[in-house]
Each structure stands twice: as C-alpha cells, then as structure tokens.
TrEMBL record:
This is Fis family transcriptional regulator. One of its GO terms (molecular function) is ATP binding. It comes from Pontibacillus yanchengensis Y32. The keyword ATP-binding applies. It holds the Pfam family Sigma54_activat. InterPro entries: AAA+_ATPase (IPR003593), AAA_lid_NorR (IPR058031), P-loop_NTPase (IPR027417), PAS (IPR000014), PAS-like_dom_sf (IPR035965), PAS_fold (IPR013767), Sigma_54_int (IPR002078), Sigma_54_int_dom_ATP-bd_1 (IPR025662). PROSITE patterns: PAS, SIGMA54_INTERACT_1, SIGMA54_INTERACT_2, SIGMA54_INTERACT_4. PANTHER family: C4-DICARBOXYLATE TRANSPORT TRANSCRIPTIONAL REGULATORY PROTEIN DCTD, TRANSCRIPTIONAL REGULATORY PROTEIN. CDD domains: AAA. The keyword Secreted does not apply. Keywords: ATP-binding, Nucleotide-binding. Residues 313-539 form the Sigma-54 factor interaction domain. It comes from the Bacteria. GO terms for biological process: regulation of DNA-templated transcription.
C-alpha cells in the first residue's frame, strides 16, 4: 500500500551500506542497528526504531503445546529473544515456559532436555538436539510504527483509515480463527464426554494427587454423586471408602473387588505416564456374571457346550484320582492334548472336563467323531464350504467346526480313523491356526484349543504308514493315558451304585456272589461294558435282588469272559472276518465285471452287501488282506485284484 506513495530501499547491516544517507526517513528494525549504521546516517535524516510484533498467522501451533511445557525461543541476539518473548507473554500466549537461546548460548542440561524450539524465521540457528521446530515467521512492524511513518510523510489522514481497517480485519480474522479453534475444542470435549458417558462402566480420571478430571454417568449411578460436584474434587472426598483409598494410594495391585453403595464392583486402574493421570474403571460384577450366563445359555442352545465335568467321572481309586489331577493340570495350558485309552474308558468325558476347567470354559466346545462319518462329509464338516462349492452346497456357504469353535475347544475323537489326505489338512491347520473353506480362496485365522482321542496304537499305525508321524507329534504335545477298568477294580462298586441309581428308582440290591463276579471280570469294554451289563441285569431280573442267574448268558461273567479269546482275536473273529469276506467278495464281483477295484467302488459294493466302511477302514483292511496274500494291490489301471489264494479262501467259505 505504501509503495504507491513512498520509495522504499532496504539495506542489511551485515552487507554493503551506502556511503551516506541524507534527507531520508531511516527505519531501524531494532535499536541494536543504531550503533552499526550510525556512521552512514546524516543528521538531516529522521530515525524511527520499529516496534515489532508477532506474526499471528502462525500462533495456532503454539496453542497446541501442552501447558507448562518448556520450549527454546531461538533468535539472533539475546535482546531480540527477550523482546520477542516479552511480546508473546504480553499478548497472552503464556501457557508455556520460554527459554531464550541465541548463538553463543552455553548449552546446559536444561537446554538438552527441551525438544521443541520456536523461532521467528531463524531456523538455521536451532540446535541439533531439537526434535520439533515451530517457525512463527519474521516478526512484523506493528501498527504504531506504521502510523509514525505516515505522520512523517503527511499521509496519515489519507491512508490511516485504510491501514487501520486492514489491521482491524486482521485482528477480526485472528479472533475468528481463535473462536473456531475454541468451538472445535468444545465440540471435541462434548463428543468425548458422550463417548465416556456411553460406556457401560464407571470411569474416573484423576491426577497424582487424586483430583478428579473425568467422572462419567455410570459413576454418578454407582456413587449417587453428580459429575458437576465431583469434578476437580479429591477422590477421597467423593468416594469415602477406605479399601478404595488403600488400593489407589498404598497398593500396587491392578484390580480390586469392592462394594460401593450396594454395587459389587471390580475396579481396574492404569496409569498414563506422560499426562500424570490415573484412569479407574469400575465394572459391575453382577452384570458381568449375567452376561457370562447369557453367553453360556447361547452356547447351550446351539449345542456348543461341554456337558461333563470331572464330577461325572465316577471313582475314588488312587489311579483315577491321579488321572484327574494330571488332566486338571493339562487343562490350564493352551497346548494340544492327546487322550489315549481303550474303548469305554471315558475319553469324551475327560475332553469335556478339560474344557470346563480351562480358561476357554465360556467359549464353544465342539466335537467330531471321525469313525462315524465318511471322509467326504468330514471334510465339509471340519472346514466348511463356500456357496456353490459342490452340488447341494447351501446358499451362502457354511462355517466348519473349526470356525464355529473359534475362541474355544475342538475335540477330534477317534483320530486314528482319519485318512492320510485329511491328516495332511489337519496338520496344516494345527501348524498355521488357519483354515480354508472348500471352494474358498482365502485363509481364515482361527484360535482353537485342540483335544484329540483314540483307542488305537498310533505308533503301530505310523509304522504301517497309516498315520503321519508329524501329525502325531503335533497332537501329542501333552498326553493323557486313561486307565482301563481292570486296573482300577476298587471303583467298580461305586460305578455299579451310580449306574443302578441312574437307571432305576426301585430298591434293587446285588448279591455278594454277583458283586464278586463283577469284580473279577476283565472288562475289555471297560466302563461302557459294565454299564451295559447293569442295564441287562436290571432288565431281566425278576426280584428286588440281582442274582447270578441275571448275569449275561446265565453264567458268572468272569467265566464267560475267560472262555473268550483275547480282545485281538475277538476283533479278528467278530469284525475283521466279516470285513475281509465282504471286501474279498466285492473285489471278486468288480473284477468279474472287468472293472478296476478302486476304494470308492469297494465302498459302494460293500454297502450293497450290507456293510458300511470308511475309506480309511477300507485302506486298512486291504493292507491286511494283502499281507495275508489274498489280494495284490497295483498302481494306476491295475487296481486291486484277487490272488489265487484269495479265490481259494472265498471258495472254501461258500
């Protein structure tokens, strides 16, 4: 604006100056310039020393600094630093502590501890240890100096109004910016208050002395004290509870259970070091229990719950007590557990019980029995599938058991019956803790605890090539071996009493002869066989007392058992022979049609003959038949064929 009326020439004292200035108005940027340039200023010149002010365009950054924080004010001379600091303080920007700094300042520990510097354009003078530089720009000539210049050139009346208006607009603009910042702060505080009040827990924030800065609506409910009354008061005045005071100011615990105004509350605390603030969270313990009960009820409704606990495992023998103790210890970890034991020893009960005393007891418990399902169904049940993955896939796809068990426990029962193909997928899931649905293209992370069980000798299956050794070691991180009933005979009377009470309300007794017979039995079917025997005797008895005549086959059970072959022979006679005959006949029929005897065809052919077997069972049985010399197993188109010995076997059994 002044350039239209006045010719202005600028000089810097540290560069070349004119030989002499005459009949001029000389404006110094600072009184420090006077000594440096006096020799070139003629007495005919009028001199005005500028009064300087802060460039308010950049002060917004200063308001963002934390109250009480120390900053360096960096300028070229001590006097200009002090003058600028004085201007800032006089303006009202006094929430921070300014430490003057200029070239030649002796650096102290105080200086090194300061990480923020403010400078009026002298960025190159800022020391290296500073992390944050706030450049507020060169200090401006203030309006009083401008008016002195106008007065000198007799332009005050002509330009004074315009300059005053421009200055006023700048002040209004600055005020508007400050007002907008204030509005944003108020809105942010109101938003944060709504968020804190919306939390279903009591929240209190206090400084190191216990003075309250946050007190939400739930705390009003718990204490009966309004937030407006609690704010800025000491917590000891608001919450008169000695246990709370001890917890806050004397103890180091992170949580404490307290009762305040009949509310059972769990109090948690954490400290914000930089702010010097402690946050307290008051959780309603009764509501938390109700939520857990509701979650438990939801799991029950879905069937995703472990029904049994260690109390359901009947017995007080030393062996069973020790097994329970070991199982309880294993439950406290997150590691996989392999439960091994004969059929009927209660592997499912132990799996349920382990889940129920683990940290996941309020999370899902899902089980799958590999011997009860065909392999194709097992895969979709375990891993789920995407929509359109196969014919009959339901719309939207389906979550598998691993996904549904997320956060909880999955029980893999009869793991010894899993095919090698499925073993490979299971191994990857256990290693990576992620699954991919059938027909899917993305991996889904899961968090499940693995429990597995089998009544088979997995080491023998490994030697036969029927079970992966790496999967075995992944499953058997922890191991629980269940004792057979014949090794804990002392528990038999308790079990008999339990099963009789479970199955009848009548006052039925057992003769000593029957009890002795039951105690001497080997029980190869273990507890399940004992339960079945009790059911049989209760069904056939004719009196209120069970006698020897009520035992199965009307003979003492120990004699009956001892007359039988060993379990291995029993299995061979009762199960394997049937499977062998059916498989050999199926191979014969398929070969006769000129077709290759694949495992799938053998499954279908066996089903047509009234025997259902899984692919794994087919594979195991084929290896046994090959070992006996009844069949030859070829690769590719050759397939499986009867040998002459196999044909002779079939003919001899016609």
């Amino acid at each position: 604006m002044l350039g239209k009326y006045i010719s202005i020439t600028s000089y810097a004292s540290e560069t070349s100056l004119p030989n002499m200035l005459t009949n001029k108005l000389i404006v110094y940027s600072s009184h420090l310039i006077d000594e440096e340039v006096r020799h070139v200023v003629d007495d005919s010149c009028e001199v005005i020393v500028s009064r300087r002010t802060t460039n308010y365009q950049y002060i917004e950054q200063l308001f963002q600094l934390k109250e009480g924080s120390k900053v360096l004010y960096v300028n070229d001379f001590p006097e200009t630093s002090e003058e600028a600091i004085h201007t800032l303080l006089k303006t009202g920007i006094d929430h921070i502590e300014y430490i003057p700094y200029h070239p030649g300042t002796a650096v102290t520990q105080e200086h090194l501890g300061i990480k923020t510097a403010i400078t009026p354009g002298e960025v190159h003078l800022v020391p290296d240890h500073i992390d944050t530089i706030i450049n507020i720009g060169v200090r401006l000539i203030d309006i009083t100096t401008i008016m002195d210049i106008l007065e000198h050139f007799h332009l005050k009346e002509q330009l004074g109004g315009d300059i005053s208006d421009r200055y006023t607009r700048k002040i209004i603009e600055l005020s508007q910016n400050i007002s907008d910042m204030h509005k944003q702060t108020v809105q942010l505080n109101e938003h944060l208050k709504q968020v804190v009040d919306g939390v279903n827990d009591g929240i209190v924030a206090m400084d190191t002395n216990g003075n309250i800065s946050v007190f939400n609506q739930m705390m009003e409910q718990y204490t009966g004290v309004f937030a407006t009354h609690a704010m800025n008061k000491n917590i000891k005045q608001i919450l008169k509870n000695d246990q709370l005071h001890s917890f806050l100011f004397k103890e180091n615990d992170r949580s404490r259970f307290l009762t305040i105004n009949h509310y059972n509350l769990m109090v948690y605390r954490f400290h914000l070091e930089q702010e010097g603030t402690t946050i307290l969270i008051f959780k309603n313990a009764d509501e938390t229990i109700s939520i857990e009960k509701a979650a438990r009820h939801d799991l029950v409704q879905k069937g995703y719950i472990a029904k049994y606990t260690f109390d359901h495992i009947i017995g007080n023998s030393k062996m069973i007590d020790n097994t329970k103790k070991i199982a309880t210890k294993l439950a406290k970890t997150e590691l996989p557990v392999l439960i091994q034991g004969e059929s009927g020893t209660g592997k499912e009960l132990y799996a349920n019980s382990i889940h129920n005393v683990s940290s996941r007891n309020y999370q899902p418990f899902l089980a799958i029995n590999f011997s009860a399902l065909p392999e194709e169904l097992i895969e979709s049940e375990l891993f789920g599938y995407e929509e359109g993955a196969f014919t009959g896939a339901q719309k939207g796809g389906k979550k598998g058991l691993f996904e549904q068990a997320d956060g909880g426990t999955i029980f893999l029962d009869e793991i010894g019956d899993v095919s090698l193909k499925l073993q490979a997928r299971l191994l990857r899931v256990i290693q990576e803790m992620e699954i991919r649905r059938i027909g899917g293209n993305k991996n889904i992370p899961i968090n499940v605890r693995i429990l597995a069980a089998t009544n088979k000798d997995l080491m023998s299956l490994i030697r036969e090539g029927q079970f992966r050794e790496d999967l075995y070691h992944r499953l058997k991180v922890l191991c629980l071996q269940l004792p057979p009933l014949r090794e804990r005979v002392a528990d038999i009377p308790l079990l008999i009493e339990h099963f009789m009470k479970e199955q009848t309300n009548e006052p039925v007794t057992i003769t000593q002869e029957v009890m002795d017979s039951l105690m001497k039995t080997n029980w190869y079917g273990n507890v399940r066989e004992l339960k079945n025997t009790i059911s049989y005797m209760l069904a056939v008895r004719e009196k209120e007392q069970i006698t020897l005549e009520d035992l199965p086959n009307a003979a003492p059970l120990n004699e009956y058992i001892y007359q039988q072959p060993s379990p291995t022979v029993v299995e061979e006679d009762w199960v394997n022979v049937k499977r062998n005959d059916t498989l050999l006949q199926s191979i014969y029929e398929i070969n006769k049609r000129g077709e290759r005897a694949s495992r799938q065809k053998l499954i279908n052919e066996s089903m047509s003959q009234g025997l259902t077997m899984t692919e794994q069972q087919i594979r195991t049985q084929l290896h046994k038949l090959q070992h006996k010399g009844y069949i030859s197993i070829g690769r590719g188109r050759t397939g499986t064929n009867l040998t002459a010995q196999g044909v002779n076997y079939l003919e001899s059994n016609d």
